Amino acid sequence: MSGIYFHIPFCKVRCNYCDFYKTTNQSFIQSFIEAIKKEIRIRRDYLEDKRIETIYFGGGTPSLLSINEIEDLINEVKTIFTVLPQSEITLEANPDDLSPEYLNSLKKGGINRLSIGIQSFSDSDLQLMGRRHNSTQAIDAVRNAQKVGFDNISVDLIYGIPGMSFSQWQTNLKTVFNLNIQHLSAYHLTYHENTSFWEKLQKDIFQEVEEEESILQFEELIRCAENNYFVQYEISNFALDGFYSKHNTSYWNQTEYLGLGPSSHSFNKTTRYWNISDINKYLTAIAQGNIFGEDEILTQIDRFNDYIITGLRTIWGIDMDYILKEFGETFYLHVEKITSKYVSLAKVKNEKKWVRITKSGIFISDHIISDYLYLNKEDE
């Protein structure tokens, strides 16, 4: 099984915190659709005829595309690949794009999962972040999606926003769970270079949230999710049973995927491939039949570290038998040594050869994961 990822780089405005590759020049959309269809054909062998179980439209703002453009891309994939009948097909969307008419067209056009980028239900937070919707539009988007028959809806929220109080975060969580969604992705605000938020941080206009407050907000997120029967199946992702994101889970489980569009990444277990992050160069290269990306052959250490980084973020953890079989005794003993250290601190548990981070370990998960990584002797 494999997945297809479309990076749709178009946005109406640039959000103040986002560092994903994007452009506000929507005049490229028509030529982009034709180019990405050509890329599908050019790179059809990357997945070696594996069947497709997930298709994901990310961005950028995929909901800027018309239903005809979305259907065109889905049909092109189905022409080139074997797409399973029960495939999960996700569209990321901004709330203000989701009119009842558009939602109805998406449902009829084959989209069966929505990921709605709400980020906050506070209008002041939304204005601060440069979002183009308000809280009323956010709530209406979810309810309208439910009315037309969407029953697999994910919402994105951000915590650690400058000026956000603990009670405001509680209100956000209460609001989102009252909407009867099936999935929640919640991320702590990160200050990325070359964003408006980063510049304000450097000028002391913004101050990062104190670590203690960040922890309190994260703890409240976990508590509310559990109270609403959501499983924290990955550090930042929560879902009702049966509604884990199949596409994102495939990333964490080392499943092959093909990324299409500027700045997209691909993985087939032996190589990683990434497209250039420039719409003009991407369009020109494809039109001229030139190279529009780069690749690297993964070493055993690369593959091991990828497995650690993705696996330990999930409830499934890492499989010691798989490590021994796939990477050998040196890597197995390395993991065994680190595991003993964190088991004694109750930050990691080892059950039937499956190593998982515990609830208390989640709060230092980045440190734990980095400790498990295998370094070249030259790098130590």
Structural domain tally: 2
Number of helices: 14
Largest sheet: 9 strands, mixed
- Helix residue percentage: 40-55%
Please write the CATH class name of the largest domain.
Answer: Alpha Beta
> Overall mean pLDDT score?
95
Shape: globular
Radius of gyration, in Å, reads 21 Å
Order of helices and strands: EHEHEHEHHEHEHHEEHEEEHEHEHHEEH
The number of distinct β-strands equals 15
Structural class: alpha/beta
User: What is the end-to-end distance?
Assistant: 37 Å
The strands making up the biggest β-sheet line up spatially as: 7-8-6-5-4-3-2-1-9
The fold-level CATH name of the largest domain is: pyruvate-formate lyase- activating enzyme
Could you say what the CATH architecture of the largest domain is? Alpha-Beta Horseshoe
